[in-house]
Amino acid sequence: MSNQPGSAFTKFTQPSTRHRAVSRRLFRLVRRPLFWALPVFLLVFFGLDLLFPLRTSVPYAPLITAQDGTTLHAFLSRDDKWRMYAELTEITPIVRKTILFKEDKYFYYHAGFNPVAMIRAAGRNLLTGRRTSGASTITMQTVRLLEPRERTYGSKLLELFRALQLELHFSKDEILQLYLNLIPYGSNIEGLKAASLLYFGKPPTLLSLAELTTLTIIPNRPSSLRLGINNAYIMQERNRWLARFRSAGLFDEAAIADALNEPLTARRRAAPQQAPHLARRLRTAYPDTPIIRSTLRPAAQATAEQLVYNYVNRVRALNIHNAAVLVVDNRTLDVVAYIGSADYANTFDGGQVDGVRAVRSPGSALKPLLYALAFDEGLITPKTKLNDVPTNFGGYEPDNYDRRFNGSVTAEFALANSLNIPAVALLKDIGTPTFISMMRKAGFSTIQKQAKDLGLSMILGGCGVTLEEMTRLYTGFANEGVVGALALTSPIVGPAPLSKEERTGPGRRSVRLTKSFSPEAAYLVTHTLTQITRPDLPNNFDNSYHLPRIAWKTGTSYGRRDAWSIGYNRNFTIGVWVGNFSGAGVAELSGANTATPLLFQLFNALDYNSARGWFKPPKGLAMRRICPETGDTPGEFCTNPVTDYCIMGVSRFRRCQHRRAVSTNAAGTISYCTYCLPDQHEAIVRRSYPNLTPDLMAFYRSRHIPFETVPPHNPACERVFGDTQSGPQIVSLNDGSEYFINPRQPVEMELSCLAANDVQTVFWYLNDKLYQKASPGEGVFFRPRPGVLTVSCADDKGRHSNVRVVIRSE
Fold first, then answer.
1. What is the pTM of this model?
2. 109 FRET partner, CA 20 to 30 A, in 209, 546, 645, 722?
3. CA proximity to 188, closest of 83, 57, 312, 334
4. Would you tell me the crossing angle of helices 153-169 and 138-146 to the nearest 10 degrees?
5. Residue 88 to residues 55, 95, 180, 213, 713: CA-CA distances in angstroms?
6. Which region holds residue 333: left if phi is over 0, alpha if psi is between -120 and 50, else beta?
7. Spatial distance between the Cα atoms of 281 and 219, rounded to a whole number of angstroms
């Protein structure tokens, strides 16, 4: 095959002249130093960027805002500056126009520095022999604000490098935002938002063109242009810049004219200081977050603060110095008002104590939870009869608030009137461990440390709770038994120049919902607590207060140290505590007359004439006929049944036995048992007698209230009953107790018992020796001696019971 030039073989095996030329040019280009300049620069820049990162973390002054964004409370930053974080949404188009026109017209077009402006500035400086122009862009000024240093050419080069870093890692809007957060305004005020709030009393979004222009020109000369001091001079400078804006056509003529005519009334204002207790609580919870959005509503918070302040001023004459209030939106569980004390600045009365989180005795305010649990356990319905009589619960003898007893009452009457004996009896039936477990389920964290030491007295205030826990509990009654964690914060905003996680912030806490009791039990409690015929209304309330339609419960702690009143409707739950943080008791302090008037004022101010209606009975509730004497389903001797609520499938079904049949002679003077029934030719009459409990009969006897008693048993009957289970119940002395006596001053001790309706006589034995016979309601006294003592009590049917005690000398 031919290998001559021009042949086909030569065309495919030898490089063309054009290819050889391209190769020679590339070879020469690679050998030039400028070819490697850009890659080397980028490699060095990124290496330095990794080795010497730009630190943009700035200690901002924490702001606590309301639900609508209004600033409620501001704190100094860690370096004692009023440096407030402005969000991107607060940088309005007017702000951008004025700032960029004055400082950096080509901000959005350069990479951190403006080479044209730098060349021009360098030329001017060389021609004049002095520094007349710096040509710093907003990005470079931001670097200088982040890292202040001496103004030298070396510093300028470092600023250029830092500016490129800033442009690399952040968007233009974020850089502008950071700049506006750092510009100085004199003294310890930094940033546009801080100046706006502290000089004009409004956020940047509400500033007028004249006000924005004023804040635009001050950072260049913060020492000479001092707002509130040199306002006349500042106004001249402002108008000069407004004229420039007009010449540049930055704003329309009408806006410029209005701005020129606007007076300058700026002055230094105090930082916002609303909701101080919640503000400090949130700042502690989110220490590095510049803006913490609370759930508070400004109008509700301000109204509640003023009402509490005025109310405490009125009751201070009674030596009552403080109050705390928590207002919760039942639909969202947002806390809309939070007042920890009447006056935070009052250090004499402990104004800085947060009464919302202070552990106090709840008095009777826990009773609704107990009754809800009893409803769900099927133990009671609203008209179930409970005994409100003097009762000894293993040595614990509670008393009612008014030191009176009511005998047999319905469960709803006992709850509405806050009777103590029925509540303690219910807690005894349910068991304190079950009730404590329910409290934990409802969010009572303070109960954890106390649980092992709690007994029956806890239902009357013998435990520690907080106003926050109590208010959260009552939101469950307004939300069909569902209790959830109260929300104090909305989504939280962090500074833009931080990581994504920090920018997002911890956000709003997830609201944990717990089904603490059934909707049926919640409704039954609400239905009861809505009644207005009850003793815990304020004195002469109808002449002094407009009673809102709410369900509420009061509580007064032992020693009258704490007064509680917690109420709710469809919209809000409001918890009120009144007392002294010192723990000093006050004779006039009570939940009804001290806390409830403030509760009514708050509801009337925050939710007057609520339009959401009232609670409706849930589907699980039904009506049934019951005997009014016991609340049980009608039995043989129930002649006038009434209706009552019951929880289907839960409420117990028990036949009423409030009366029992007894066989007697025709005169009704002798009763017979089945063993001693007379012959058929003698007249036997079947009569009914009250089947009263022993404690109720003892109460009737002590109050001289007449009641039917079973006639004495046939004396000719030789049967001995011998049933120790139904024998007399010894209520004094207490089984297993130790009693200490002084031998030099001997005293007598009382023996008492509760016996059945058919008992006429009881017999007392001391260490198996007959001591005395007496009637069932009669107290027997004896003089004890040291040692082990067995006390026995037998009735005239042969039934008996024993207790064992120890008598010791002091």
1. 0.82
2. 209
3. 83
4. 100
5. 20, 11, 10, 19, 93
6. left
7. 34
Edge-to-edge strands of the sheet including 729-732? 729-732, 749-754, 780-782
Q: What angle do CA 699, 702, 704 make, to 5 degrees?
A: 105
Residue with token string 């008693």 = 709
SS3 284: helix
Cβ atoms of residues 664 and 670 within 8 Å: yes
Closest CA to 407 of 212, 695, 766: 695
pLDDT at 1: 41
Second CATH level (architecture) for the domain 334-606: 3-Layer(aba) Sandwich (3.40)
Contact (CB, 8 A) for 295 and 497: no
Set 77, 294, 364, 518: catalytic member: 364
To the query of whether residue 418 is one of the catalytic residues in this protein, the response is no
Q: List the Cα angle 213/215/216 in 5-degree steps.
A: 60
Q: Judge whether 334-606 and 724-809 match in fold.
A: no
Do β-strands 71-74 and 63-65 pair in parallel, antiparallel, or remain unpaired? Answer: antiparallel
**Cα(242)–Cα(213) distance, rounded to whole angstroms?**
7
- Domains in the chain: boundaries: 17-50, 63-261, 334-606, 724-809
Question: Looking at residue 5, what is its pLDDT?
Answer: 45
β pairing state of 82-83 and 189-190: parallel
Q: Bridge partners of 135?
A: none
Task: Give 3-state DSSP helix, strand, coil % of the chain, rounded to 5.
Answer: 35, 20, 45
Of 164, 212, 224, 222, which is closest to residue 190 (Cα–Cα)? Answer: 222
User: Which fold is adopted by the domain 63-261?
Assistant: Penicillin binding protein transpeptidase fold (1.10.3810)
Neighbours of 560 (CB within 10 A): 18
Q: In degrees rounded to 5, what are phi and psi of residue 751?
A: -110, 130
Active site includes 801? no
- SS3 assignment, position 769: strand
Q: Which residues pair with 82 in a beta bridge?
A: 189
Per DSSP, the three-state class of 296 is: coil
Helix (H, G, I), strand (E, B) or coil at 621: strand
Q: Which of 471, 470, 469, 473 is nearest to 482 (CA)?
A: 473
Task: Point out which residues pair with 750 in neighbouring strands.
Answer: 781
Q: Does domain 724-809 have CATH number 2.60.40.10?
A: yes
**In 10 A of CB 652, how many CB atoms?**
14
DSSP output for 531-595: --SSTTSPTTHHHH----S-EEEEEE-TTS-EEEEEEE-SSEEEEEEEE-TT----TT--IIIII
The answer to whether 548 and 603 are in contact (CB under 8 A) is yes
> What are the DSSP E strand ranges found in 317-472?
322-329, 334-339, 385-388, 407-410
- Confidence (pLDDT) at 510: 45
Per-residue buried b or exposed e for 159-175, using 16+ beta carbons within 10 Å of the residue's own CB:
bbbbbbbbbeebeeebb
Residue 513 DSSP SS3: strand
Q: What is the rounded distance in angstroms from the CA atom of residue 652 to the CA atom of residue 649?
A: 8
pLDDT along the chain (810 residues), means of 10: 43 53 58 56 61 80 93 94 92 92 87 71 62 71 85 74 83 92 91 94 93 91 84 92 92 93 92 95 92 94 96 94 96 95 92 95 95 95 93 83 88 93 94 92 86 90 94 95 91 44 39 78 95 71 66 93 95 96 92 93 87 87 92 87 93 86 83 77 79 80 81 75 68 83 82 83 90 86 90 86 87
Q: How many CB atoms lie within 10 A of CB 539?
A: 10
Give how far the C-alpha of residue 33 lies from the chain's centroid of Cα atoms, to the nearest Å.
Answer: 70
Alpha helix positions (H), 442-540: 447-450, 467-478, 500-504, 519-529
Q: Quick one: pLDDT at residue 766?
A: 92
What is the Cα–Cα distance from 807 to 742, expressed in whole angstroms?
Answer: 10
Specify the pLDDT at position 450: 85
At 670, list the tokens. Answer: 């002798």
The answer for residues whose C-beta is within 8 angstroms of residue 473's C-beta and 6 or more apart is 369, 442, 443, 444, 483, 516
Among residues 77, 87, 90, 103, which one is catalytic? 103
